[in-house]
Write a structure and sequence with these properties.
By secondary structure, this protein is of the alpha+beta class. The chain is built from 10 helices and 6 strands, in the order H-H-H-H-H-H-H-E-E-H-E-H-E-E-H-E. The protein folds into 2 domains: about 210 residues, no CATH class; about 70 residues, Alpha-Beta Plaits (2-Layer Sandwich), CATH 3.30.70.120.
Amino acid sequence: MEKIKFFRNSIMPYIYISLAAVLLSFVYQLFVVKNSFAPAGLNGIATMVQYKTGFSIGFMSLIINIPLCILAYFMISKQFAKRSLCFCLVYSFMFLYLQQIGLEQFQYNAQGHDTIYPVMLSGVLSGFVYGVCFRNHASTGGTDIVSKYISQKKPTLNFFWVTFALNTLVAVSSFFVYAKKDMSGNLVYDYKPVCLCIMYCFLSTFVGNMILKGFKTACKFTVITTHPDEITSEIINNLHHSSTEISAVGSFNKDNKTVLICVINKHQIIDFQNILLKYDNTFSFSETVNETYGNFKRIR
């Protein structure tokens, strides 16, 4: 049992992180490098450097991320730093390997037309990668580590929106990097790379935030009633959920009441409302629950 727990808590996160790193290396090789836009953060800067000089994204990632992970080890968290370093090493070496084997026949080269499609594909897949990493207490390096440090110092700031703000600087830089010369040799600036970078950042931020919050959304009902036993019985028998009872007193006329707290699946909301409509002296309100945690016994 202890070995299984150790494997699940200590080994599996590194497997998930490594698989996410492999996926991101494919995303960059297949959808990003041929389409003249900077994705986000450090990798966006590395992409622009490779575009201008030919210096590989993989090497650039290693040069910048290793020192950042060392700083994270002392300033953020040892576990976070080690897992982030794992991601960066796997991503960098995998990207370098993909460059060597050549994937030209599989690359999405929009050739300047309909570039929105590779941006959408790469943005969604990268957001998935970011979400997986942060659910496993890691990052993809670069500005993610900077954002983690800022959000740790100021917990009220959402990590992904801090990242989005930092990535705006990359978008502005891409305006100048991807300028091209016309027939006369004059530089022609285009806002298209900026728009593509912002779209990529928005999609990756949105999907990453969804992954981080989780998909097990539910609905929490708080019910104030004088019929707790009847309502609880219907919840158990009809919805196969239970509830928590709290004794309460009405502030207006000091009547004794019961507060029921119940979390149900989203598709059961109408059924729950129909149960409440049967009983007088019953008031309720609902809230969205992003995810539920803990070990629960199923009601049969």
